[in-house]
From TrEMBL, chain A:
MrpA C-terminal/MbhD domain location: 597-661
UniProt biased composition (Basic and acidic residues): 780-789
Localization per Swiss-Prot or TrEMBL: Cell membrane; Membrane
Ranges for domain NADH-Ubiquinone oxidoreductase (complex I) chain 5 N-terminal: 62-97
Protein name per UniProt: Multicomponent Na+:H+ antiporter subunit A
Alphabetized GO MF terms: antiporter activity
Any single GO BP term: monoatomic ion transport
Topology of this chain in the membrane: Multi-pass membrane protein
Domain of life, per lineage: Bacteria
Domain MrpA C-terminal/MbhE: 676-760
Organism listed in the record: Actinopolyspora xinjiangensis
Keyword terms: Antiport, Cell membrane, Ion transport, Membrane, Transmembrane, Transmembrane helix, Transport
From TrEMBL, chain B:
UniProt domain NADH:quinone oxidoreductase/Mrp antiporter transmembrane: residue ranges: 131-415
Source superkingdom: Bacteria
GO MF, one example: NADH dehydrogenase (ubiquinone) activity
Family: Belongs to the CPA3 antiporters (TC 2.A.63) subunit D family.
Lipid bilayer topology: Multi-pass membrane protein
GO CC annotation: plasma membrane
Name of the protein in its database record: Multisubunit sodium/proton antiporter, MrpD subunit (TC 2.A.63.1)
Native organism: Actinopolyspora xinjiangensis
Keyword Transmembrane: yes
Transmembrane in keyword set: yes
GO biological process: ATP synthesis coupled electron transport
Sequence intervals crossing the membrane: 31-50, 80-97, 109-128, 134-151, 163-188, 208-232, 239-260, 272-293, 300-321, 327-348, 369-387, 407-427
UniProt keyword list: Cell membrane, Membrane, Transmembrane, Transmembrane helix
TrEMBL record, chain C:
Ranges annotated as spanning the membrane: 42-64, 70-90, 106-127, 147-169
Subcellular location: Cell membrane
Keywords: Cell membrane, Membrane, Transmembrane, Transmembrane helix
Main localization (coarse): membrane
GO cellular component: plasma membrane
Domain (Na+/H+ antiporter MnhB subunit-related protein) ranges: 44-166
InterPro entries, per database record: CPA3_antiporter_subunitB, MnhB
Membrane topology of the entry: Multi-pass membrane protein
Protein family according to the UniProt entry: Belongs to the CPA3 antiporters (TC 2.A.63) subunit B family.
Keyword Transmembrane attached: yes
Protein name in the entry: Multicomponent Na+:H+ antiporter subunit B
Tagged with keyword Repeat: no
Top-rank lineage group of the source organism: Bacteria
Length: 789, 511, 188
């Protein structure tokens, strides 16, 4: 199974590298892997229905719990029929839709094929993390497919919106998966389904996972990315946003229903969100003039319906879901492809401009009518069969009846916008000029015709559909039921509901214009698109605000913050919990007092100095004072080195000061922050002093290491000067390291000081080289990635 | 056998001297640099194998046993990070050589670049391999001194000024580091890391905690932890692309490594460290928000770097084996990905002539190769499966969920949010620079410095080097299984610390 | 030939030029010779000339005595460096080859190489990196002499420090002066 998935991706890669000359053949070639997948799935259909699904496992990283686990069970079979079947048809359709060969066509082919492969992997996944991997890959493919080459602003915005909304859901879902996996100890779905976990962690995980499902399947309030994504070419919309990708959320809920069976609120939440989405989608669809947008909102509405069914958890509900999945895939794909034909042949998708197409394109119209019948739930299509099952599921009282009422009302809206679609697209309108249309190539009509026929066939041959759906429903709901999908169950409530729905929907459609007039007078409620834009806008403002405030660009501020961090974090710990120091001596040697005084006075003087040379000399005094402290403290080597280094530093300073102005230049704002700077530095110095006191008094015994140095110096290193022994023997490596630091620093200083002159030389050298090489080399060739698109 | 531990440190130093002597011969310098780095890659691989199979390999320098002398220790963590770092250094060197040949011709060479680069390599290796706190300071000094030179050489006055911010902040943090070492020695009487762990046990708790926090601050400055990160976005973007790539990939990670090594080896703690988790959350958010506010491509990448340091701090804050496994995996992933992104950014600036995203457009048409070279590491950084970023992020998320405390759960949510923001930032770059109308490249505004823009010229060396790194990121994902196992063993070693201490203090001169 | 100002045609930049045979080989010791037209302090120059060799010898003493009394490679190198600083302060720019025979980067490189080699030498002999050994041998007049291998590390340190100080003088000293001269001269 992994091989089949990977073959999709490999062929996609090869296709993207193939040259332009063969671009006509690209789409049929691209249709090969999904065909293979479809055939393979059908070949295994028997074992799947019998209850022994084929399984593949491959380890990726056992430590992290990552493995590729695939399992072809009934739900996967149903989805494969949709994904691979419609995939083949869409790819063949694309050959005629993308007329002239172009980079767009090539890219779309490989991306569509890659998407088909990734979606195929998603439906087969038997491991939560495998599922997530393919989930995110579909998001990326969708991003690239919607954006195309990103030339228009709308396509860029739409693809970004889709990316962000679905990734937000995806990441939250990942968190849910991890919570679920960690608390139950396994990530494998089949194992989880066999032994459903329960507990608070599972409840939390369910909520998180539902967020993911809702974003992907465009439930309210995440639904706006779907209509926005209609900027993509129609075949892409047909495939991604009608037949496969958006179903992923519903599929996920269906897949995890057995796993999450202990979570009681799952059906409630899915029902609520699903119904709201169903209403909102249908309501918006009645207002749209663009056929694609109409269908998009229709898809949103249908997804809501599917979500209600997916979360139901009952046998009949799951039966209805399987039927509805097949039905929706079939009729939605047909309608999108038909609209693509209309758009391609007439140049417009606006129902206000279209008229008389029914007479000009009779075959197209009949295909569309067949699909529309399925969408509206007219017998004998599969749409009718599935809807009957759905109505049957929610027969009852109380909350269940409310849901029933909801789906009936939603179906009314569905019929209404279906009628609006049909009439708006194909009817001859009074007083309108018939639209011009180019003749339709047969190959372009074939794919939608196949799917439309499927709508009919699946309904008429309902025993077949029933067997497929029943096997799935049994496993999903955990129990069997008596209901069977069929065309005639007798005069019962579902039949009445269907009839009522048809009648009410047609009436609504007839009065739609008046309704729209009323609507335009009403105030506009919350708009999800505006909400999304507002959120993104405030995110940008927040980012700029925070960064502008925080990233000040002032070096003293940065240093001050570092010092403050040192003061606050370790300093507070020291202050709060330290014990008083015993045996505190004020000095060891009286001479330390005047030396300390000199150092302190010099330090204060540095702060107050106005001339640079004064400050430098005072720093030198501090250095010499410290050297004096070393002498008094009994470290002649240290004192010697200190005096020498201090002298050298002073000389270096003085040499550089020749180039600087004599006085410090201080802006008035800098003068204002002088006091805080002094205070912070003072606090820092005091902290270090105190810390030194506290830490030195923390131990009573002298250092063991020092004792060993003194002991081993004579015989181990033949030295009587321990300091030197440490530098060149015990810790010689430090010396070698510091030598390299000195070497590097000297080189760096040289490079800095001497660089301004060489900069000019370099500029001329480079322009000479460019002229030389430009005449010598061809302009394309090894450097030419340009122009090879 | 234990001499192999000294090779990554001493060989580049010697080669730097030679390279300086042969400063007039460009080809000699180039081949010497590549050869030395190649040898070190092999050596690091051998060290990793040995450390994984037999335990830490210790070299007592000068023949003096620790804690009297300095010990170089190659355990799993050090060897793994060393291997990845040197591979990246090799690729970046290839890129620099390619860039130099494109801009100035094959004959000329800069006398100082190659020796300084080799010294930088030596410093990085020493930082990973040393087992002594003062030696760690020396290693940082070697690394930082080379970086000061690399960031300020051959550029204009404005860029030197930006480099000065970096230099002065680093010097200040080095002063703090030295102060901290002095305080540590005053309190414990030793600077050997293994020995420190033992000595710390004998001190009262308040000074121990203060020392731990001081170490967090010092290494936090080096690794650009919020609120000590300000120097990074102000200084990194102004250097040439390969220099920024090396800095971003290595210097901050050495800071993180030092933080991990000192905190875990020396101090005792329970899982879920609230202070570190808070700092990690702040770093992630501030970095991500900063990246979203930028129009300059390099500055945006610098802010993303800061943000992802937060991920590693998160793993450290979780403070158990799973968390540390995640950190190690994340460091390995991030070193390769961040270096690649900066190299690709260099390629992008050469094609478009600008670093401002608002002035770029249509690059995917001009150069599909650069588009792919950008897309792979960018998706990996954003944590999209099946790339390395996803694998590492998964490890971190599992650790965060697994440890179970409230702080950890909040921080895990922040990790998820930051991932989303990173994806948004990266998608924005794609949308602005690679999609859209094709724009004419702008000319080079300042031909006198080493940053060449707008020419569209790239040599095979540059593209191949970037390609090698992109392949490495893919390899990290493919080899996630073995890598995760090694990381977990390294993490276990770290937490228990017994093997390390026994090898350094107990066994004498090791392997 | 001596005089208050240079003869006609005397170039302002440093290069080898003619002088009479009784003039000293060290050009900077020439009284009256002034490369830049600036003030000269006779006292400073005299003391510098007298003290320079002594300071160098003292630095060598510090180098060799470091292992047993105060001193060592760092102190020795710094003292030698100070001698050159004194000469620079007295005599002006030092970047022509007659005054300093070795370029500072070469000195630096040599010092570093000696240090690294001293560390690596014990390895072929079966020792550890940077291991030290002491050799005692008898010399007829002076008696027993003991040399420790870490002395060579000190020598490397010594050379490197001298190189660093000379480089400092070359860049911060002469380099900055050249910049100033260019600015004032208006030459580009």
């Amino acid at each position: 199974m992994l091989a089949l998935v990977v073959s999709h991706l490999l062929v996609a890669l090869v296709l993207s590298l193939v040259s332009m000359r063969h671009s006509r053949a690209i789409y049929p070639v691209a249709a090969l892997p999904p065909t293979a997948a479809l055939c393979w799935a059908l070949a295994h259909a028997d074992s799947v229905l019998a209850g022994s699904p084929p399984v593949t496992r491959m380890n990726w990283s056992a430590t992290l719990g990552l493995e590729f686990a695939f399992r072809l069970d009934t739900l996967a079979l149903v989805m494969t029929l949709l994904v691979s079947g419609i995939g083949v048809l869409v790819l063949l359709y694309c050959r005629w839709y993308f007329g002239t060969p172009s980079g767009d066509a090539k890219r779309s082919a490989s991306l569509l094929l890659a998407f088909a492969g990734v979606m195929f992997g998603l439906v087969l996944a038997d491991d939560l993390l495998t599922l997530y991997v393919f989930w995110e890959l579909t998001t990326i493919c969708s991003f690239l497919l919607v954006g195309q080459s990103g030339v228009s602003r709308e396509s860029r915005r739409a693809s970004l919106q889709a990316l962000l909304v679905t990734t937000l859901g995806g990441l939250v879902m990942l968190l849910g998966f991890i919570v679920l996996g960690e608390s139950s100890g396994t990530y494998r779905i089949s194992e989880l389904a066999a032994d459903p976990p329960d507990g608070a962690a599972v409840a939390v995980a369910t909520g998180l996972i539902l967020v993911g499902a809702f974003t992907k399947s465009a439930q309210v309030p995440f639904h706006n990315w779907l209509p926005a994504a209609m900027v993509a070419p129609t075949p892409i919309s047909a495939y991604l946003h009608a037949a496969s990708m958006v179903k992923a959320g519903v599929f996920l809920v269906a897949r995890l229903t057995p796993v999450l069976s202990e979570v009681s609120y799952l059906p409630v939440v899915t029902a609520v969100f699903g119904l709201v989405t169903m209403f909102l989608g249908g309501w918006r669809a009645l207002r749209e003039h663009d056929l694609k947008l109409l269908l998009a909102y229709g898809t949103v509405s249908q997804l809501g319906f599917l979500m209600v069914l997916a979360g139901s958890g009952s046998y009949t509900g799951e039966l209805a879901l399987a039927g509805m999945l097949l039905a929706h895939g079939a009729f939605k794909a047909t309608l999108f492809l038909v609209i693509g034909i209309v758009d391609h042949q007439t140049g417009t998708r606006d129902i206000r401009e279209l008229s008389g197409l029914g007479r000009r394109m009779p075959w197209v119209t009949s295909v569309a009518v067949l699909a529309a019948m399925s969408m509206a739930g007219v017998p004998p299509t599969i749409g009718f069969v599935a809807k009957e099952a759905a109505f049957e599921t929610y027969l009852g009282t109380g909350a269940v009846a409310a849901v029933e009422a909801g789906i009936v009302a939603g179906s009314v809206l569905t019929v209404a916008y279906t009628a609006r679609l049909l009439f708006g697209c194909f009817a001859s309108k009074r007083g309108a000029v018939p639209t011009e249309a180019h003749p339709v190539p047969a190959g372009m009509l074939l794919p939608p015709a196949v799917t439309a026929l499927a709508c009919l066939v699946l309904g008429v041959a309902y025993p077949l559909t029933d067997e497929l759906a029943a096997t799935y429903a049994e496993r999903a709901a955990g129990s069997s039921g008596e209901y069977h999908l069929g065309l005639w169950h007798g005069f019962n409530q579902p039949l009445v509901f269907s009839a009522v729905t048809l009648f009410a929907g047609l009436t609504l459609a007839a009065h739609n214009a008046r309704l729209n007039l009323l609507r335009s007078r009403l105030p506009r409620p919350l708009d999800a698109q505006r909400g999304y834009e507002r959120i993104m806008g405030s995110l940008e403002r927040l980012a700029v605000g925070v960064t502008g405030r925080v990233q000040v660009g002032s070096l003293p501020t940065y240093l001050g913050i570092i010092l403050l961090a040192v003061l606050v974090v370790p300093g507070s710990v020291l202050l709060m919990r330290v014990t008083p120091i015993e045996q505190l001596r004020w000095w060891d040697n009286v001479l330390q007092l005047p030396l300390a005084l000199v150092i302190l006075v010099a330090a204060a003087g540095v702060v107050r100095a106005t001339r640079r040379i004064t400050a430098v000399l005072l720093v030198g005094v501090i250095g010499y004072g410290i050297g004096g402290m070393f002498i008094v403290g009994g470290g002649p080597d240290l004192a010697l080195t200190q005096f020498l280094v201090e002298t050298l530093t002073l000389i270096a300073f003085v040499l550089v000061l020749r180039r600087l102005p004599a006085r410090f230049t201080e802006t008035p704002s800098a003068r204002r922050v002088r006091l805080p700077k002094v205070l912070v530095s003072l606090a820092g110095g005091v902290f270090v002093g105190f810390a030194a006191l506290i830490f030195s008094s923390a131990r009573d015994t002298p250092s063991r290491v020092s004792a060993e140095y003194l002991e081993h110096a004579e015989e181990g290193t033949s030295a009587t000067n321990v300091v030197n022994a440490i530098i060149v023997d015990f810790r010689a490596f430090d010396t070698v390291g510091e030598l390299s630091v000195l070497a590097v620093t000297a080189t760096g200083v040289a490079s800095l000081v001497l660089s301004s002159r060489s900069a000019r030389r370099r500029k001329h050298a480079r322009s000479d080289w460019r002229q030389l090489s430009a005449t010598a080399r061809p302009t394309a060739g090894e450097h030419g990635e340009r122009g090879s698109a | 056998m234990s001499e192999l531990v000294a090779v990554p440190v001493l060989l580049p130093l010697g080669a730097a001297g030679l390279s300086m002597a042969f400063g007039r011969f460009a080809d000699v310098q180039r081949w010497l640099g590549l050869l030395v780095l190649g040898v070190i890659v092999v050596d690091a691989a051998v060290l990793l194998y040995f450390a994984d199979v037999h335990g830490p390999l210790v070299l007592h320098l000068g023949g003096w046993a620790a804690p009297v002398g300095i010990a170089l220790v190659a355990d799993r963590l050090a060897a793994l990070l060393l291997l990845i770092s040197v591979i990246v250094m090799f690729a970046v060197l290839l890129y620099s050589i390619g860039q130099r040949i494109t801009d100035y011709g094959r004959g000329t060479a800069s006398t100082t670049f190659h020796p300084i680069y080799l010294v930088l390599c030596s410093g990085v290796s020493l930082a990973y391999l040393t087992g002594d706190l003062f030696n760690l300071f020396v290693a940082f000094e070697i690394m930082l001194a080379s970086s000061y030179v690399l960031i300020t050489r051959r550029t204009t006055a404005n860029r030197v000024r930006a480099g000065m911010t970096y230099t002065i902040v680093s010097l200040s943090s080095s002063v703090l580091f030295l102060t901290m070492i002095g305080l540590v020695y005053a309190a414990t009487g030793t600077v050997n890391l293994a020995d420190l762990a033992l000595e710390m046990g004998e001190l009262p708790p308040a000074p121990v905690r203060a020392l731990a926090l001081l170490m967090v601050i010092v290494f936090g400055v080096k690794s650009a932890m919020v609120p000590l990160h300000f120097w990074l976005p102000d200084s990194y973007p102004n250097a040439p692309a390969p220099i920024t790539a090396i800095f971003a990939a290595l210097l901050t990670k050495v800071g993180i490594y030092a933080m991990i090594r000192t905190q875990i080896l020396v101090f005792e703690r329970e899982p879920s460290w609230p202070l570190m988790l808070t700092l990690a959350m702040a770093t992630m958010i501030v970095g991500a928000l900063g990246a979203l506010a930028q129009n300059d491509l390099n500055r945006m990448l610098s802010f993303l770097l800061v943000s992802h340091i937060g991920f590693m701090l998160f793993g450290l804050g979780v403070y158990d084996i799973a968390g540390l496994t995640g950190v190690i995996l994340y460091i390995v992933h991030h070193i390769t990905v961040q270096a690649t992104l900066f190299l690709v950014s260099g390629l992008i600036t050469r094609y478009t002539g600008t670093v401002a995203l608002s002035r770029m457009g249509g690059l995917a048409k001009i150069s599909p190769l650069v588009a792919v070279l950008f897309a792979v590491p960018a998706l990996s950084l954003a944590g999209v499966p099946p790339f390395s970023g996803f694998v590492a992020k998964l490890a971190l998320l599992r650790a965060g969920v697994g440890v179970g405390t409230v702080w950890a759960q909040v921080a895990t949510a922040v990790v998820v949010l930051t991932s989303l923001l990173t994806l948004y930032a990266v998608a924005r770059v794609w949308s602005r620079a690679f999609w859209g109308q094709v724009r004419e490249p702008e000319g080079d505004p300042d031909p006198s410095d080493e940053l060449v823009v707008g020419t569209g010229d790239t040599s095979r060396g540059m593209v191949h080097a970037t390609g090698v790194l992109v392949l490495s990121t893919v390899l990290v994902a493919v080899l996630a299984g073995p890598l995760a196992e090694v990381s977990q063993r390294a993490a276990t070693d770290l937490i228990t610390g017994e093997a390390y201490r026994a090898a350094v203090l107990g066994g004498g001169s090791g392997g | 030939m001596t005089g208050a100002e240079p003869p006609e045609g005397w170039p302002n930049t440093g290069e080898r030029t003619w002088f009479r045979s009784d003039a000293p080989a060290e050009r900077w010791l020439l009284s009256g010779y002034s490369r830049d037209s600036r003030e000269r302090t006779i006292l400073l120059e005299l003391i510098a000339r007298v003290v320079f060799p002594t300071v160098l010898v003292f630095s060598l003493y510090l180098l060799f005595a470091g292992h047993y009394r105060s001193g060592g490679g760092f102190s020795g190198g710094l003292v030698a460096g100070q001698a050159f600083v004194l000469r620079y302060l007295a005599g002006g720019r030092l970047d022509d080859s007659s005054t300093v025979s070795m370029r500072p980067p070469v000195l630096i490189g040599t010092g570093l190489t000696i240090a690294v080699i001293t560390g690596l030498v014990p390895v072929p002999f079966g020792g550890v990196v940077l291991e030290s050994a002491s050799f005692t041998f008898a010399v007829p007049v002076l008696g027993e002499i003991k040399i420790v291998s870490s002395l060579f590390l000190d020598v490397g340190v010594y050379l490197l420090i001298i190189g660093v100080v000379l480089d400092l003088l070359r860049t911060l000293g002469s380099g900055i002066e050249a910049d100033i001269a260019e600015r004032e001269g208006g030459r580009r």
